[in-house]
Design a protein that fits this description.
The protein has 730 residues and is mostly helical. Helices cover 84% and strands 0% of the residues.
Length: 730
């Protein structure tokens, strides 16, 4: 049992290094008074938005926890710990996003000032700021899981199965908060971004982040609340979800041997702990030369990721040999997950970086206008789904096979679960490369608004363009891990169905068909339920493609990905329309803005984005929670399984398409801004800006929210499984 403590100790180390990196960032000079003033305006706007968002989310969490308490204490179909685990999951998810946002807003001016000295100084500050986010997310996630596991298993003496099933409700809280953060933050940032670009760049012909643009502060605030706070909550949810689902499957896979079952539960936690230590080493390996090209900068970041991955691969074989002797294939499953993550990352890099043919092709199409630009981006994004899908399929089959799934299916499913953990094991550094992007973007905005020399903006632009690619790569990791985690959660759902049935029977509910089967076997119903395999559950609940309940669920799940995306894109469109009107109004009614003699009303634009985000984030989030509940009540377990499969398959592909389309359009625009195809202000540039504005809500609002949707629907289904089995109609 001693090796379990690797997880909490590593988590504390992560938080310690996050604090050290934060102090290192804060020691850097913020620059001129103008730079400090701009950074403070962005920080104030970001804090005000998150404060308002958390008030709305708190109401939602209170209502949801009340519903979970009713399930636990009223209907007796859920554990009494569920409402409390749910609340802590949401709290730590929000906290990780808030810490990341505060670090990012404190880092932008310092990064811009670093760019006044050298490229490497700017990269170091921005990347260390990203590392604060990465290490905070993994540290808080593993601390919270360790505390809950210790309290339930060592303290309250629950069985491993009960402990891991209860912990899944913690994942629901993290997922729900992440969805609010991603959707709300995404609507805020893209409404401001689209409004600023369409009126500022296209109509007024002024540069990006020009202080004359009334929407420029809102745009920079949005980078922090959407791409930092939202992303932090998002990946906190992905990270904890993969660990929790794997732990639940480990308890089931090795139930015949108590020692191996315990080791299988803590293996995902110890892999995550090892990943923290590997990530810290990788952070120190990231450096760049002064004359570094885009590819050189990317290689500098990749060097840290590859070093961390190599440490994980070596360490995992030792951990599996120690914890699960005779099951070395599981180490292969973890490595496969790690490799799949790297393949998805490289594929995303290829299809979104301006250093490769696909994005250059999109840029070339701007010569013939907006329509061909959009068609080129869409077609390349559709093609780009092939490699990630094939990689995940290979990963699923490979992880299943390595873990012995073809002879013992539950072990194979455990292998898929730990493959997701492997993919996210280096999250401490992969998230650092992702979170660094918004910091670099804000640094560029700060340099432009503070009117720093062109050579400073050239450095921040290079870091920003790199950030677009690393952000797209980070989204690829999140989406890929969502696919593997959601598949593991399907199996975990069956475990929760078992627990729900047992609770219902213990509280006097009668299941005549199940009682008859137990009687035929000559054993008590409770023992009969304990002994059932996943295949038995599939047969009992008729989970097969000939069952119309399953097919109905599949269609509803597939529809949800498009319905949800439609709601979020529409919300961005409406808020962006109001932003465009406001920016046009200010240009028209406030004399002297274009000449730089009058100051725009920045706060009016911040208020428009805030109102639009708060108003529009509720409906998509409600749909994600309510649909699994109603499908379960109407169509039963079979319908829920179909729902989750439909949402996973359509949502995964749609999310990759959106992320890569947006990333490609964004970097095609930046490729032109580097002086290619006529450069800034040319007809190609204007077409590129239009493509970028179309892609913005895809890559930064709807796309990244889809991977949370997939897992949140799975988590909700797991948590209300007891309600489904006790009260379904069909």
């Amino acid at each position: 049992m001693g090796i379990f403590w690797v997880a909490p100790i590593s988590a504390v180390v992560a938080l310690l290094f996050a604090f050290i990196f934060y102090k290192n960032v804060m020691k850097a000079d913020e620059g001129t008074e103008k730079m400090i003033e701009i950074a403070n305006a962005v920080k104030t706007g970001a804090k005000a938005y998150l404060s308002q968002q958390y008030k709305v989310v708190a109401i939602f969490f209170i209502i949801t926890s009340g519903f979970l308490a009713f399930l636990a204490y009223g209907l007796h179909v859920q554990s009494g710990w569920t409402p409390f685990a749910f609340l802590t999951g949401g709290f730590f998810s929000a906290l990780s996003g808030y810490i990341g946002m505060m670090t990012a807003t404190n880092s932008s001016a310092r990064t811009a000032n670093g760019a006044r000295k050298s490229l490497n100084d700017a990269l170091r500050i921005a990347f260390r700021a990203g590392a604060v986010m990465g290490l905070t997310v993994v540290g808080l996630g593993l601390v919270d899981i360790s505390i809950w596991f210790s309290a339930l298993y060592f303290g309250a003496h629950y069985s491993l199965r009960e402990t891991t099933v209860i912990l899944l409700s913690f994942g629901m809280g993290a997922s729900l908060q992440a969805l609010f953060a991603r959707v709300g933050g995404g609507i805020f940032t893209k409404a401001a971004d689209v409004g600023a670009d369409l009126v500022g760049k296209v109509e007024a012909g002024i540069p990006e982040d020009d202080p004359r643009n009334p929407a420029t502060i809102a745009d920079n605030v949005g980078d922090n609340v959407g791409d930092v706070a939202g992303m932090g909550a998002d990946l906190y949810e992905s990270y904890t979800g993969s660990i929790l689902s794997s732990a639940a499957l480990g308890a089931a896979a090795f139930i015949a041997n108590k020692t191996l079952a315990f080791n299988a539960v803590v293996l995902p936690m110890t892999i995550a702990g090892l990943g923290i230590l590997a990530s810290i080493i990788g952070v120190y390996a990231v450096k760049a030369k002064e004359d570094a090209s885009q590819k050189n900068l990317l290689n500098a970041l990749n060097r840290g990721i590859y070093l961390s991955s190599a440490i994980i691969i070596i360490g995992v074989f030792f951990l599996v040999k120690t914890l699960l002797p005779g099951n070395m294939g599981i180490a292969g499953s973890v490595v496969i997950g790690l490799i799949v993550g790297l393949v998805i990352g490289k594929s995303t890099e290829y299809y979104t970086s301006s250093g490769y043919k696909p994005t250059i092709f999109v840029a070339e199409q701007t010569k013939t206008g907006e329509a061909t630009t959009i068609l080129a981006g869409m077609s390349q994004a559709m093609i780009s789904t092939a490699i990630p899908i094939l990689a995940v399929v290979t990963g699923i089959v490979g992880a299943f096979a390595f873990a012995g799934g073809f002879s013992t299916p539950i072990k194979g499913l455990y292998g898929i679960g730990v493959a997701a953990v492997g993919m996210l094991s280096t999250l401490g550094i992969t998230l650092a490369t992702d979170a660094y992007g918004p910091v670099a973007d804000n640094a560029g905005g700060n340099a432009e608004m503070a009117e720093l020399p062109p050579e400073v903006r050239k450095i921040t632009d290079a870091l920003d363009a790199l950030g677009n690619t690393t952000a797209a790569t980070g989204k690829g990791f999140a989406i890929g891990s969502a696919a593997l985690t959601a598949l593991a959660l399907l199996a975990a759902y069956v475990e929760e169905v078992r627990a729900g049935l047992i609770r219902a029977v213990e509280h006097g509910r009668v299941f005549a068909d199940l009682a008859k089967l137990a009687e035929q076997k000559g054993i008590e119903l409770i023992k009969f339920l304990h002994d059932l395999t996943i295949a038995d559950f599939m047969r009992i609940f008729k989970v097969n493609l000939m069952n119309p309940m399953v097919i109905s669920g599949v269609f509803i799940g597939a529809m949800m990905a498009f319905f949800f995306s439609g709601l979020t894109i529409k919300a961005v469109s409406k808020a962006a329309g109001k932003m465009v009107d406001e920016v046009r109004r200010q240009f028209k009614e406030i004399p002297g803005i274009m000449e730089g003699k009058a100051k725009p009303d920045y706060q009016a634009c911040v208020a428009i984005s805030t109102k639009g985000a708060q108003k529009s984030m509720v409906a998509p989030s409600l749909a994600a929670v309510l649909v699994p509940i109603f499908v379960g009540i109407i169509f039963g377990v079979a319908g829920v399984m179909g729902l989750l499969i439909g949402a996973l398959s359509s949502g995964f592909i749609l999310a990759i398409f959106m992320a890569n389309a947006g990333g490609s359009w964004d970097n095609a625009k930046k490729y032109i801004e580097e002086g290619n195809l006529g450069g800034k202000g040319s007809a190609s540039h204007k077409a590129g800006v239009v493509g970028d504005t179309v892609g913005d809500p895809l890559k930064d609002t709807s796309g990244p929210s889809l991977n949370i949707l997939i897992k949140l629907m799975s988590m909700v289904s797991v948590v209300v499984a007891g309600l489904t089995v006790a009260f379904h109609i069909f």
